[in-house]
Amino acid sequence: MSARAEAELQHLIQWYPGHMARAMRKIGEYLSLIDIVVEAVDARVPRSGRNPALDRTIGKRARLLVLTRSDLADPHATKAWIAHFAAGGLETIAVDARSQQSVGRVRTAAARLAAGRKGVSRAMVVGIPNSGKSSIINGLLRRAAARTEDRAGVTRQLQWFRLPPNVELMDTPGILVPKIADKAAQWKLALCAAVPRERYEPEEVVRAFERWLRERYPNRSVPGIDEFAAARGFVRRGGEIDYHNAAQSYIRAANAGEFGRFTLEFAGERS
Ligand SMILES: Nc1nc2c(ncn2[C@@H]2O[C@H](COP(=O)(O)OP(=O)(O)O)[C@@H](O)[C@H]2O)c(=O)[nH]1
Ligand SMILES: [Mg+2]
Fold this sequence. Notes:
This protein has about 270 residues and is α/β, with parallel strands linked by helices. It contains nine helices and eight strands. Strands 1, 2, 3, 4, 5, 6, 7 and 8 form an eight-stranded mixed beta sheet that branches. The chain binds guanosine-5'-diphosphate (GDP) and magnesium ion. Magnesium ion (MG) binds near residues 133, 134 and 173.
């Protein structure tokens, strides 16, 4: 890692505590109203895509883990993650959050959790940036019944939607800040577009991904950054490659599934 990237990383890690505290406080305010927490996590980063601080904040509330982008993740790895979380008592489902049918399973799972409780349970979707929160909420609301009435006080700004038979969904997602535990978490989260773009050097991210792919998926033919840049025309006059913009485009392509399905973290492995 270059000195510049190292400095960037320090900056990134230091930048977050204040944001983290604020984000957690905000979620904490909402949580007083919530019975079921639906945690959206990108299935490609089931470890780095979660923030362990959420455990303390939500306490003993019912929780449903939704692994999004199952269409982009390695299905074997996703299966192992579901078993891993289930073994820890955490109900987990994998979805393509863009699909109505898939999001229907979130609704079913939430209804099942609510069935163990009295009356109507109130649910909220939380997750780090780009984890699929809005997609899940939109998918659920598309078939939702009429908006339920607004409540007083802290909920004045919030809207609740009835998901028959027994769930009410808050329309606002709770935004978690990712916890960047190490260098690997940084490039993986950046690759999954979970980190603000000004917080990382795209070229470093792509090179780390390339190295990782060669190790983990050696039989996969994924273009390197040079090949990708040449093919997509990220070449300046004089033949010099525009690595910065090529790398940004590369990250978008990876997120669009152009390089096939991959999971960046495996159940039962540290990194
Ligand atoms: N392929 C795929 N794309 C998804 C999935 N979930 C979300 N997206 C896309 O990822 C982007 C960010 O999703 P969004 O729901 O806005 O994430 P949020 O930032 O957590 O609210 C959007 O372009 C979505 O269409 C998924 O399960 N599969
Ligand atoms: Mg959103």
